[in-house]
Amino acid sequence: MKETNNSSRRDFIKKSLIGAAAFTIVPRFVLGKGYLAPSDHLTKGVIGVGSMGRGHFNYAGTKTVAICDVDTRHLALAQKALGGGVKEHHDFRDLINNSEVDIVHIATPPHWHGLMAVEAARSGKDIWCEKPMTRTIGEGKKVKEAVAQHGNIFRLNTWFRFDANFYGMNVPVKKIKKLVDTGMLGWPLKVTISKHTGFDWKFYWVGKENLPVQQVPKEFDYEMWLGPAPYKPYSEHRTHLTFRGYWDYDGGGLGDMGQHYLDPVQYFLGKDHESPVSIEVDAPQQHSDAVGTWRKITYTYADGCQIILDGEGTEVGKAYIEGPNGKLFRGFVSDIPDLERKLAQFPEPAPQVTDFVEACRTRQKFALNEQNGYYSCTLVNLGLAALRLNRNLKFDSDKQEFVNDDAANRLINQPMRGPWSF
Questions:
Q1: Contact status, residue 210 vs residue 320, Cβ threshold 8 Å
Q2: Which residue, among 155, 214, 149, has the nearest Cα to 6 in the 3D structure?
Q3: Gfo/Idh/MocA-like oxidoreductase N-terminal domain: from which residue to which, for each copy (predicted)?
Q4: How far apart are CA 410 and CA 102, in angstroms?
Q5: Fewer C-beta neighbours within 10 Å, C or N terminus of the chain?
Q6: 62 in Cβ contact with 127 (< 8 Å)
Q7: What number is the average pLDDT over the span 82-88?
Q8: How many Å apart are CA 95 and CA 46, to the nearest integer?
Q9: Which residues contact 382 (CB under 8 A, 6 or more apart)?
Q10: Which DSSP string corresponds to 58-90?
Q11: DSSP E strands, 288-407
């Protein structure tokens, strides 16, 4: 895919923030085509308008002006939800190069995320990407590099590090971050993510072996849906709602929920620019095509901090966070006496930019972006690599590669089916 010129809209915003602050209501035509009036909504194009894509049409401060899908049934449902009259595209590149689009929202299966995000970055568009950020570590590096080069604003769509109660903890992550930062639990810490601490690994996202070969529906461009993924004969179960069960497109329950669960842990442990140095796996041998289940995955950092993914719920009674000086259990219950009073004496964590529209207007990094999102997605992909190979792995956090392991390193940059490439 060839690089296109960056949008003049982004450069204009960077150069005129001070002047724009004085505007109140300015029509788009006063500034000229492609320039954003501060009073305008940001326009959005959504790639992939299945159930996930259709659920994000009405984000405050944005207006969906273009949609793209390789299934005409999805496009029809999207038009109905939007009230009709929205520009349709079959090829995502046409949507990305649509001059009326400010933000490209990527809601496809993960095997497309990297290519689409890089193409959007090269076209000068800001990017909203569903989780997981990318299907491989290498694709994540490409996205990080492209956004850095072209100055886009990137949002990864898992919000728990800054918004909403965090699953079984029943408090926002900010409060957990504050507790960890106080040092009351001590160091290093062990975090256990389990059904007993409030996290469901959704093991119904498993693939099926020996899928029947079926006729491709006439409304569905299966060749384009596969894109860079290896060619496999069409079977309904490997597409749309159940694609997560196949290695070529995602990584089962870990691929689906991993970044939701792990990104906040990375944040409150202060690991936004660091990866674990070892990954241990306890799982059945995996099928080469269909993703299966696993019993336990353990990540260990250089300083001794650990994250334990308990797949089968064997860690009964374990604390969510355990340190040498105290424990934190489900529901923000702790064995530290008078915790709430003690916690109130400490400062709040540093503020984050959590309004994506504001981030786009002011060119400030969003709270969960291409940099910290890369590292939390790498956590997911490290676990998936160990699971696929069914053995423990060592990882060099500085080099971002596996140590003396050619087979594992081949999973970092996996081949793409022609004609697709970065």
A1: no
A2: 149
A3: 45-156
A4: 36
A5: N
A6: no
A7: 96
A8: 8
A9: 137, 275, 276, 279, 299, 393, 395
A10: T-TTEEEEEEE-SBHHHHHHHHHHHTS--EEES
A11: 296-300, 306-310, 321-323, 326-329, 333-334, 393-396, 401-402
For the stretch 329-360, pLDDT in tens is 999 999 999 999 999 999 999 999 999 999 99
**CA pair distance 259, 253, nearest whole angstrom:** 11
Rg (CA), the chain: 22
pLDDT in tens, 7-64: 444 443 443 333 333 332 233 333 433 444 444 689 999 999 998 999 989 889 999 9
256-268, pLDDT tens digit by residue?
Answer: 999 999 999 999 9
Place of tokens 């079959």: 90
Q: What's the confidence (pLDDT) of residue 3?
A: 40
Fold of 165-412: Dihydrodipicolinate Reductase; domain 2 (3.30.360)
Is-contact 398 301, C-beta < 8 A?
A: no
Rounded Cα–Cα distance for residues 367 and 267 (Å): 10
Query: 43-156 has which CATH code?
Result: 3.40.50.720
**Closest alpha carbon to 325 in 182, 171, 176, 178:** 182
The Cα–Cα gap between 255 and 265 comes to 16
Q: How many residues does the chain have?
A: 422
Which amino acid is located at 160 in the chain?
F
Could you tell me the pTM of the whole model?
A: 0.91
Rounded mean pLDDT, 389-398: 98
- Ramachandran category for residue 75: left, alpha or beta (phi over 0 → left; psi -120 to 50 → alpha): alpha
Query: Structural domain boundaries of the chain?
Result: 43-156, 165-412
pLDDT at 25: 29
Place of tokens 């939007």: 82
Same fold, 43-156 and 165-412: no
Q: Count how many Cα atoms sit within 13 Å of the Cα of residue 369 in the half-sphere of its side chain.
A: 24
Give the Cβ contact number of residue 398 at 10 Å.
9
